[in-house]
Amino acid sequence: MGKDENTSAFEKVRGIECLYRYRPTGAYYARFQINGKEVRKSLRTDDRQVAKRALAREQGKQAKIDPAAGKITLASLADRYLKTVSGSQSTIEEKKHVCERVKDEWPEGSTISIHKVVPSQVETFLAQYRFGPCSYNAHLVAIRAMFRMAVADRLLSESPAEHLRGRKRNKPMRLTPTREQFESIIADVRAQTYNADAQDSADFLEFLGRAGLGQAEAAAIKRTDVDLERAVIHTFRWKTRTAFDVPIYPSLRPLVERLLAAPPNKDGRLLRISDAKKALAGACKRLGFPRFSQRSLRRMFITTAIERGADVKVIAEWQGHTDGGTQVLKNYSHVNRAHSDRMAQLM
Question: Is residue 105 a contact partner of residue 70, using CB atoms and an 8 Å limit?
Fold first, then answer.
């Protein structure tokens, strides 16, 4: 098999076919002939018994490989993969772009046999671009899929891209309106006199901001869930399948009383609509505000509660959390820090 087996740095292990030991480190390697070319693969151990078992597994993998696979280049594999891609036009274009880059910009050249592609080459290819998390992950997903296809088609025993992990996306900036912006938004929505749903949309958005609830929870509230005498609203969060009570805060009570005084809906719901996303987007655009979402209104409520000194554990109960305030502290630590600094000035 090429050079003198016992004069090079690799020493053949007596009595075991295809097993070699690398003298400088003592690590074991498997050696194979693929399409007439020698391939050496590390077994990642310097223990002989472990190496024997790893060699057996590797031989099993090699036995499954199509003998003609050695003639397939990286470029032809990319073309082969691209024919299998389906989905939206944007998805197809994205995969096509990645495949073109693989063919044109692979560090070792895309005419390389797929058997000679090693994990470090995949890392080098991805590292040559200044990718953000989204672009990096898009390229990695396509490359992974390409090599997984090769494994499934018995062209490779394993994928050289399988060890790589995607990058975590940066946490999006969570926009939160001030109380003044919130009041301006509600007033603007109510002022849209030519919109038949303007008042219902304004009621819905105002309820979200004053009750501190999410869109789905608010939409599901029925008139019978409101207990004015005890000043609570019974609600249910489907995401966690938990029921909890929300206080009818002083700033919320006038709105709730007005909604109850109006003629009831046929379905018995407190609010006449279940989503005011478009109305909110329109108001933000007209007022020149950031594109606040309906979730932003709940964040405003929690931020205001923290700034006014409400106990975090109590805020968590208002939100239906059962963690004693851990989630609120984690997500709103920046607000809590500012409040703490102000309180420190009083000492």
Answer: no
* CATH number, residue 93: 1.10.150.130
- Token pair 């279940």: residue: 274
Sheet holding 28-34, edge to edge: 10-12, 19-22, 28-34, 37-42
Classify burial at 67, counting beta carbons within 10 Å of its beta carbon; exposed 0-12, middle 13-18, buried 19 or more: exposed
Listed residue (306, 276, 278, 286) closest to 176, CA to CA: 306
Cα–Cα distances in Å, from 138 out to 29, 103, 141, 159, 180?
34, 16, 5, 17, 41
Q: What is the pLDDT of residues 291-331, one digit of tens each?
A: 999 999 999 999 999 988 888 899 999 998 888 888 887 77
Query: Which three-class secondary structure state does DSSP give residue 302?
Result: helix
Residue ranges making up the domain that contains 317: 179-344
Task: Please classify residue 286 by burial: count the beta carbons closer than 10 Å to its beta carbon, then call 0-12 exposed, 13-18 middle and 19+ buried.
Answer: middle
Is 173 a member of any domain? no
Q: At what angle do helices 198-211 and 277-287 cross, to 10 degrees?
A: 90
Q: Are residues 95 and 239 in the same domain?
A: no
Cβ count within 10 A of residue 120: 11
At 58-101, the pLDDT tens digits run 777 766 666 555 578 999 999 999 999 988 898 899 999 999 99
CA–CA separation, 216 and 208 (whole Å)? 10
The answer to whether residue 80 sits within a structural domain is yes
How confident is the model over 159-176, as pLDDT tens digits?
A: 999 999 998 876 655 789
Domain boundary among 43, 64, 85: 64
Rounded to the nearest 10 degrees, what angle do helices 133-152 and 119-127 cross at?
150
Q: Which of 280, 268, 263 is nearest to 209 (CA)?
A: 280
How many domains does the chain fold into? 3
| Paired strand residues for 42 | 29
Q: Is residue 168 part of a domain?
A: no
